[in-house]
Amino acid sequence: MAKSIFITGGGSGIGRATAILFAGRGWRIGLADIDEGGLAATRALLPSGMAETHVMDVRDRAGWAAALDTFTAPSAGQLDVLFNNAGIATGGPLTATSFDAIDRTIAINLTGVLNGARIGYAYLARTPGACLLNTASASAIYGSAGLATYSATKFAVRGLTEALDAEWARDGIRVRAIVPAFVETPLLDGAIDGSNRTIRETVRAAGLELTSVEAVARAAWAAVHGTRVHTYVGRTAHIMAFAARFAPAMLRKRMRRG
């Protein structure tokens, strides 16, 4: 039987590109998203019979269990990769960010990932060589001014990845994270609280590059099949990782200017 990957946030962006890459290499794909139309659009791009869709909110634990039960039924409950990818982007000064936005960001970007890990464990534990893959961010390398809540959730995802890679090693489950910089997805079209600019406009004004979703999908493949806990994606992520290790004072000064 073909290997299988269950991808949250599969209706667009990184999730869609990853589904296309894995399906093209013979994997069976489970797509989950709150966007039914986006799921249908992704599925239409994949080989016939290679994917199934699940309209699901990562905050809904019962929804997680139902979707994973259905998707893994043909493989006797086994799952090769669970890709905890769903997330939202929020920006702006913390003092200008509503409490509703803070709560929603934490619930989706962190609690949703914890839900996937906690509920997905049973399926991964049945599968030799299984992998939990999480989407972190370059904002988890050094906290980004104007992205405080987002950075906090991605730091948590990074820490969770490291903790579970150690905790689940005895069960034969590898835990990995991709750490991209700014990725060319619709998330960048969101407005920054307290500003009339989008995240995309702010990124471009800062002279930072946008990484393609195809590059991130290739990094996801490498992460699943590699030995590194964190896989950095894009020039900015690599520069930040280097600076955080060897020139933290310089990075701190740059962040204060930003």
UniProtKB/TrEMBL annotation:
It comes from the Bacteria. InterPro entries: KR_dom, NAD(P)-bd_dom_sf, SDR_fam. Residues 3-176 form the Ketoreductase domain. Keywords: Oxidoreductase. One of its GO terms (molecular function) is oxidoreductase activity. Belongs to the short-chain dehydrogenases/reductases (SDR) family. This is Short-chain dehydrogenase. It comes from Sphingomonas panacis.
